[in-house]
Design brief:
Layout (H helix, E strand, L loop, with lengths): L1 E12 L2 E12 L3 E5 L6 H8 L7 E6 L2 E2 L5 H10 L1 E4 L11 H11 L4 H14 L15 H13 L5 E5 L7 H17 L3 E5 L3 H4 L4 E6 L2 E2 L11 H13 L1
Parallel strand pairs: 3-8, 3-9, 6-7, 7-8
Antiparallel strand pairs: 1-2, 1-4, 4-5, 9-10
Helix pairs in contact: 3-4, 3-5, 4-5
Length: about 240
C-alpha cells in the first residue's frame, strides 16, 4: 500500500533549481534510501516529503491527504503525530536534559510528565544513552547527542521517520546500532523510513535506493521502478544481520 506519493515536485532557491519534476511512491513499512552526489536535491526532497518545505510545483500525498495544500500549522501537527524527523546534527534544546528533550514531543501531544519521562527513558535505553538521561546536551559527546535526537524522533512511534544523514555525527559502532534499530522498526512495527545518505554502507540497509542527480531521479540507478540485483542482495544481507 502506497503511503507517500509525490508527483512532479519542483523546487528552486532563487534561480537555482533543486528538484526538477521528481515523482515517486513509497509503500507502508518500506525503508528507502535517497542517495546521490552533494547538491543533487536529496535534502530538499526529504523536506518536501515531510512537509517542512512547500514545493514550488507538484503534489505530495500522505495516506491520501495532500500535504502541500495544508497550512503550516496543520503540517506541524502532522510532524508531531505521524512523522518523526532526524537531522544530521540533532538539534537538541540546549537548556533541556536528554530525557526532557526526548519527552518534549509527548508533552506537546498531551501526555503526563510521568508517562512522557518513562517513555523517554525507554527510548534512551534502546539507543544506548540512558546513562546521559539527566545531562544537558553540552555535557555529552556529539555521538550521544545524535542518539538522543534519534530517540526524540522515534518516541512518538511515528508512521514515517525522515532521517537526513543520521549517521554523519556517529562513530561506526553507534551508526550500526542506529541503522539496525531503524531496520528492525520497519520489520516489527511497520515504520516507514526515508533516509538521505551519501554512504553506500548506510544505503545498504534500505529495501530500495532512489538515486538523484541534478534534481531528478536517475533512471540508470536504483530508481523508483527497479532494483539492481547485486545491491538488492547486499541490502537483504545487511537487514538480515541487523
Amino acid at each position: 500500500m502506497t503511503l507517500l506519493h509525490a508527483r512532479g515536485l519542483e523546487k528552486s532557491y532563487g534561480r537555482t533549481p533543486a528538484l526538477r519534476g521528481v515523482s515517486l511512491d513509497i509503500a507502508h513499512g518500506e525503508f528507502v534510501a535517497v542517495t546521490g552526489p552533494s547538491g543533487c536535491g536529496k535534502s530538499t526532497l526529504l523536506h518536501s516529503l515531510a512537509g517542512i518545505l512547500a514545493p514550488d510545483a507538484g503534489e505530495v500525498h500522505f495516506d491520501g491527504r495532500r500535504l502541500d495544500d495544508l497550512t503550516e500549522d496543520a503540517r506541524s501537527r502532522l510532524r508531531r503525530t505521524e512523522f518523526g524527523v532526524l537531522f544530521q546534527f540533532g538539534g537538541l534544546v540546549a537548556e533541556l536534559t536528554a530525557a526532557e528533550n526526548v519527552a518534549l514531543p509527548l508533552l506537546l501531544g498531551g501526555r503526563s510528565r510521568r508517562e512522557a519521562r518513562t517513555t523517554a527513558l525507554t527510548w534512551l535505553e534502546r539507543l544506548g544513552v540512558a546513562d546521559v538521561a539527566d545531562s544537558l546536551p553540552g555535557e555529552t559527546s556529539g555521538g550521544q547527542q545524535q542518539r538522543c535526537a534519534a530517540a526524540r524522533a522515534l518516541v512518538t512511534e511515528p508512521r514515517v521517520l525522515f532521517a537526513d544523514e543520521p549517521t554523519g555525527a556517529l562513530d561506526a559502532l553507534a551508526g550500526e546500532q542506529l541503522l539496525g534499530l531503524l531496520s528492525r522498526l520497519t520489520r516489527e512495527q511497520g515504520t516507514t523510513v526515508v533516509l538521505v545518505t551519501h554512504e553506500p554502507r548506510v544505503a545498504g540497509y534500505a529495501d530500495r535506493e532512489i538515486v538523484l542527480r541534478d534534481g531528478e531521479v536517475d533512471s540508470t540507478g536504483l530508481g523508483v521502478t527497479g532494483f539492481d540485483t547485486a545491491a538488492t542482495r547486499l541490502t537483504a544481507g545487511n537487514r538480515g544481520a541487523a
